[in-house]
Write a structure and sequence with these properties.
The chain has about 525 residues and is α/β, with parallel strands linked by helices. It has two domains: about 280 residues, Aldehyde Dehydrogenase, Chain A, domain 1; about 210 residues, Aldehyde Dehydrogenase, Chain A, domain 2 (3-Layer(aba) Sandwich). Helices cover about 35% and strands about 20% of the residues. It is built from 14 helices and 22 strands. A seven-stranded mixed β-sheet has the order 15-16-17-14-13-18-19, sandwiched between helices. Strands 10-9-8-11-12 form a five-stranded parallel β-sheet, with helices on both faces. Strands 1-5-4 form a three-stranded mixed β-sheet, with helices on one face. Strand 18, helix 13 and strand 19 form a beta-alpha-beta unit. The chain is globular. The termini are far apart. The structure holds NADP nicotinamide-adenine-dinucleotide phosphate (NAP). NADP nicotinamide-adenine-dinucleotide phosphate binds next to helix 7. This is 3,4-dehydroadipyl-CoA semialdehyde dehydrogenase.
Length: about 525
């Protein structure tokens, strides 16, 4: 039997009971390690995080906590090569795709270390201006944000075992809130390895960082009113979390990042042959194939003027036909595996459902695999579908296939395109391709109510834009409606989730005294 990896809870490593759940190599189908949290005392573990980790973190200033993040960055950089080995084995990703997760995590932590240092020697954040309550100004109202006294439970998806942990942990630890991470079981090894290295380095106070791997059962029951939950995953699990007693009766604050039917939109000015057209084609192919399309932000729907539909389909299909798929240990392979055979089945089923209503413009299922057994490997080529008929397109606005699959859709005029994009019921991101800056600004604003992020690609940004699907810590990540209604990142705005806001009503002498201990800059979002 393979090694059963322990969990880190209540300040110590604890092995769960039973044989555990095996984690597999999604290309070779072999067992790598096992995880189990059976029999763990979560109640005691959470209490330890709150009672030991919380006070120790809150005793530090923002700048000191930022120093902890910098030290974590150093540890992760020192062990980076091993993380790539684990990702290759357990996620089946190419080096480039693993970097999106691993280097993305390190970059995000580094950013929060820098921003945190700028908050200086404070332990709370001012929120807005002091305003008078009495006519003569002798009685005032001052809003403050202070770290919550609970813990932060992170329930993460399988596609980002590294970034998924640290993009949440960076703002939580900087805020002074202890973290309990529950990675998705299929790819939990990388999360565990990173946490083990950080714990071994002795950077964080005891109880500041815990990790529990395996079943999600009973995870939410021990939560208390000042705890927070940040969830990334499917809409179904999100619904189960939202309706849990901890949330419904104990007001545990929840952030949800769920699935999303993100769009790419070629604006009407951009015809075939234009630079904007080529930029859309390039970005669609990149989004469909990076991490085998297993990015919550990946382009799922591609909107082009009806006059460009045929040309766009041909151009995207031509590029997709050059993508090599298979074992990422072979250097000629551009696209590795899905995270598991279960995901492979789910992608097959989702694609089959879409194919019943759409045309196949490029068939990934026909692509021969490089160095991989198609009966074992969770590998599948990219598939481009086309839904030229409006009635056929309904399912496209509703079905997220979490793999290398996207659908091309024609539109008749910009208002029609915007209406169709909104049929996604709220998305994480839409990207717009055009050479017309004013048109781009109008379209971006028109879509801002239903998206967390609008990514505008104009020819002058061709070499510098950060990518439709790349989540940059400077910008908001999250989206309304179907996308879960959550907000993450966005610079120091992310700290708001881990702080409680309160109004202090008092005489000027009291509010002045508060301000003596305030950081130079105002609270996130103000
Ligand atoms: P999932 O089944 O919802 O699993 C996500 C996490 O929830 C895993 O850690 C899972 O643990 C845990 N979980 C399962 N049942 C639970 C329960 N009853 N209570 C609490 N936690 C529970 O999602 P998935 O299929 O792995 O992930 C793919 C989905 O995530 C896609 O739809 C994608 O769009 C979405 N996603 C969104 C974002 C974003 O930022 N918006 C990012 C990535 C992925 P186990 O692994 O042990 O089952």
């Amino acid at each position: 039997m393979t090694e059963l990896l322990p969990n880190h809870l209540a300040g110590r490593w604890q092995t769960g009971g039973g044989p555990g759940t095996p984690l597999l190599d999604p290309v070779l189908g072999t067992e790598l390690v096992r995880v189990s949290n059976a029999g763990l005392d979560l109640e005691a573990g959470y209490a330890y995080a709150r009672d030991e980790g919380g006070p120790a973190l809150r005793a530090l200033t923002y700048a000191q906590r930022a120093g902890l993040l910098s030290a974590i960055v150093d540890v992760l950089k020192a062990n980076r090569d091993r993380y790539f080995d684990i990702a290759l084995a357990n996620s089946g990703t190419t080096k480039q795709d693993s970097a999106v997760d691993i280097d993305g995590a390190i970059f995000t932590l580094g950013q929060y270390a820098r921003w945190g240092a700028s908050l200086g020697a404070a332990r709370w954040l001012p929120d807005g201006e002091t305003v008078p309550l009495a006519k003569d100004g002798a009685f005032l109202s001052r809003h403050v944000q202070v770290p919550t006294r609970g813990l932060a439970l992170f329930i993460n998806a399988f596609n980002f075992p590294a970034w998924g942990l640290w993009e949440k942990a960076a703002p939580a630890l900087l805020s002074g809130v202890p973290v309990v991470a529950k990675p998705a079981t299929a790819t939990a090894w990388l999360t565990l390895a990173m946490v083990a290295d950080v714990i071994a380095a002795g950077i964080l106070p005891a109880g500041a960082l815990s990790v529990v791997c395996g079943s999600a059962q009973g995870l939410l029951s021990p939560l208390r009113p000042f705890d927070v939950v940040s969830f990334t995953g499917s809409a179904d699990t999100a619904a189960a979390i939202r309706s849990h007693d901890a949330v419904v009766r104990r007001s545990v604050r929840v952030n949800i990042e769920a699935d999303s039917l993100n769009s790419a939109l070629l604006l009407p000015d951009a015809q075939p042959g234009s630079e904007a057209f080529d930029l859309l084609v390039r970005e669609v192919v990149r989004e469909m194939t990076v991490k085998s399309g297993q990015k919550c932000t990946a382009i799922r729907r591609i909107f082009v003027p009806a006059s460009c539909y045929a040309a766009a389909g041909e151009a995207i299909a031509a590029k997709l036909s050059r993508i090599t798929v298979g074992n990422p240990r072979n250097e000629t392979v551009r696209m590795g595996a899905l995270a598991s055979r279960q995901q492979w089945e789910s992608v097959q089923a989702g694609t089959a459902a879409l194919r019943r209503h759409a045309d196949v413009l490029h068939d990934g299922s026909a692509v021969p695999l490089v160095d991989a057994d198609p009966s074992v490997a969770a590998c599948i080529g990219p598939t481009l579908l086309g839904a030229a008929r409006r009635e056929a397109a309904c399912i496209v606005h509703d079905t997220e296939v979490f793999g290398p699959v996207a659908t091309l859709l024609p539109y008749e005029g910009l208002p029609d395109a915007l209406d169709q994009i909104r049929l996604g019921q709220g998305s994480l991101v839409a990207s717009l391709y055009t050479a017309d800056a004013a048109l781009a600004a109008d379209a971006a604003l028109a879509l801002a109510d239903s998206h967390g992020r609008l990514h505008v690609v104009t020819p002058e940004t061709a070499a510098v834009h950060t990518g439709h699907g790349n989540v940059m810590p400077m910008s908001l990540h999250g989206g309304p409606g179907r996308a879960g209604g959550g907000e993450e990142l966005g610079g120091l705005r992310a700290l708001g989730f881990y702080h409680r806001r309160a109004a202090i009503q008092a005489a000027g002498a009291v509010t002045d005294s508060l301000d003596g201990a305030a950081p130079q800059r105002s609270a996130p979002g103000h």
